Amino acid sequence: IITENTDYGIPAAEVTAAGIADEGIESTTFTVDIGTQDFSAIIERVRAEDPDYIMVIQTGESAFNFIQQAADAGIGPQDVPMQCNQVALESNSYWTNVPDGNYCFVRRVGLPVELYNEVATSFVERYVERTGKLAAESYALEAYDSIMIIAQAIEEAGSTDADAIIAALENITYEGALGTITFPYGMQKDPSEDGLEDKWWHQFPDPAITMVQYQEPGEDSTFSTVVYPEVYRTGDAIWVTAE
Fold first, then answer.
1. 126 pLDDT exceeds 60?
2. For the residues of the chain, what is the DSSP string, one character each?
3. How many Å from the N-terminal Cα to the C-terminal Cα in the chain?
4. Does 61 score more than 90 pLDDT?
5. Least buried of 77, 100, 103, 230, by fewest C-beta within 10 Å?
6. Counting Cβ atoms within 10 Å, is residue 193 exposed (0-12), middle (13-18) or buried (19+)?
7. Which residues contact 92 (CB under 8 A, 6 or more apart)?
């Protein structure tokens, strides 16, 4: 796990390491400072671990620099299975900065384009027109739904009082860009009633979280192959092995 030394990167790496440890997978985490340009030292330390999979939890240009330098060193996405940060979904920037980034896996929130509903299609059309981008990033869809859910809850509550909005959200059915969103667990039903942990309190239980893979150089991320989960899968993963 390669993570940035920030309030985002450190907790994200810790949660990731704990999650995969629960599945019996060992991991080693390397931290890098924001603004790092030369990753040669870290790359050699990563190579020494003889990794089966590399996860990059870095944002912006730093992530691009690491991935391309890892590719130059023979442990990039075309050499060792690599999961890139979500910034890699910005296809134009990714391919400009990481020309050797094919076969990278990327976590994406939201349905595959071919499964977009009318809300998602409409939002993407307007987003592309206003931003000049080729597509809408997953976080744009999330942000849109977050605002619209609150707006619907205020309308249904007939109030901007916090308690009234919470009550409305607990009973809401919102048809958004990410699909049908509900919050079944809260003051009316505790998660424990269904044998679930407290973390499901006020959580959307069925988010469309997918893993996509670039399988052609220059590919648009919104049309990349969905390799997981099975319900959304549009093709098989391509696995690479270091020579």
1. yes
2. -EEESSTTHHHHHHHHHHHHHTTT-----EEE-TT----HHHHHHHHHT--S-EEEE--HHHHHHHHHHHHHTT-STTTS-EEE-GGGGSHHHHHHH-TT-TT-EEEEES--GGG--HHHHHHHHHHHHHH--SS--HHHHHHHHHHHHHHHHHHHHTS--HHHHHHHHHT--EEETTEEE----SSSS-GGGGT--GGGTT--S---EEEEE--STT--GGGSEEEESGGG--S--------
3. 21
4. no
5. 230
6. exposed
7. 134
Q: What is the largest CA-CA distance in the chain?
A: 63
Contact indicator for 174, 156 with CB cutoff of 8 Å:
no
Which residue shows structure tokens 């019996």? 24
CB 210 within 8 A of CB 223: no
Q: How far apart are CA 77 and CA 99, in angstroms?
A: 11
Cis peptide preceding 51, ω within 30 of 0? no
With contact defined as beta carbons under 8 Å apart, do 57 and 12 qualify? yes
Q: Is the pTM of this model over 0.90?
A: no
Query: Do 66 and 56 meet the contact criterion of CB atoms below 8 Å apart?
Result: yes
Give yes or no for a contact between 142 and 109, defined as CB atoms under 8 angstroms apart. yes
In this prediction, residue 68 carries a pLDDT of 97
